[in-house]
Every structure is written in structure tokens, then in C-alpha cells.
Design brief:
three-stranded antiparallel β-sheet; Arc Repressor Mutant, subunit A; 44% helix; 131 residues; 4 helices; 20% strand; single chain; elongated; alpha+beta; 5 strands; two-stranded antiparallel sheet
Length: 131
């Protein structure tokens, strides 16, 4: 059985539920980078750490506001979950919002990797000769 809810197909099998994005809902390039970064940071994935990690790994300077927008959008799409951490004195009592990848986000990342791998697999090796 399946039902369509907010551009997501939900399959139910006995005790298992799977979420799959509908056609046209592929990850954008920067969304993929942010999701991969959240996966790499595990329990330390908050917005500033995400920015720092992206810059460290890609050499790409990213603005905090852009990362916040992507995080909010991906949370609405169901790719990530968030929760507030404990307040700290260093932050003047403010709490950090920590992000984790949802099941749907993991599926989206695996789908994206699979698509890229298939594309790379059909490129003739000669195309890169001399580089």
C-alpha cells in the first residue's frame, strides 16, 4: 500500500515504512553537500560547524545565512531533523540547534550517490587522458 503526501510517496509493508521522494525532488548540489556534512559531523552538526566543515573540505566559503536557509528547507522536506542543545555560558545562555539526517535524507543521499556513480561509470576512461 502507498499514499502520496506532500510530494512524498510513503510505502508501508507489514511493520516497515519507507519514504521516497517523488520524481523531480532530487537533491540540489548544495543540499547534497550540506547533508554529507551533517553525516560527517554526527552529533556535532550545528549551523556554524556545518559552515566550517564545508569550507575545510571544499575550500568553498559559505555564508551562515545560506546554510540556515538550506537547513530550514531540508527540514521542511523531511531530509533532516533538529533539536535544541543545552544552553551554554559561552553563548550567553543560547542553545545550539543540532541536526541529524532522517531516514528520507539517507535515502536521498544514497539515491544521489547512485545516480552519480552510474554517470561516472559510463564515461570512457580516455576522456581524462592527459590530465
Amino acid at each position: 500500500m502507498f499514499c502520496i503526501n506532500n510530494k512524498m510517496i510513503i510505502y508501508t509493508f507489514k511493520d516497515k515504512i519507507e519514504f521516497h521522494r517523488m520524481k523531480g525532488e532530487n537533491l540540489g548540489e548544495f543540499e547534497e553537500v550540506v547533508l554529507l556534512t551533517i553525516a560527517a559531523l554526527l552529533d556535532d552538526a550545528y549551523s556554524v560547524a556545518v559552515c566550517d566543515h564545508i569550507e575545510k573540505m571544499t575550500g568553498r566559503k559559505v555564508k551562515l545565512g545560506v546554510v540556515h536557509a538550506v537547513l530550514n528547507r531540508m527540514e521542511k522536506k523531511g531530509y533532516i531533523l533538529s533539536e535544541l542543545g543545552n544552553p551554554t555560558k559561552e553563548r550567553g545562555g543560547k542553545r545550539k540547534r543540532y541536526f541529524t539526517i532522517s531516514h528520507a535524507g539517507k535515502i536521498a543521499l544514497m539515491k544521489s550517490k547512485d545516480q552519480r556513480d552510474k554517470l561516472w561509470d559510463v564515461i570512457p576512461k580516455t576522456i581524462f587522458q592527459g590530465i
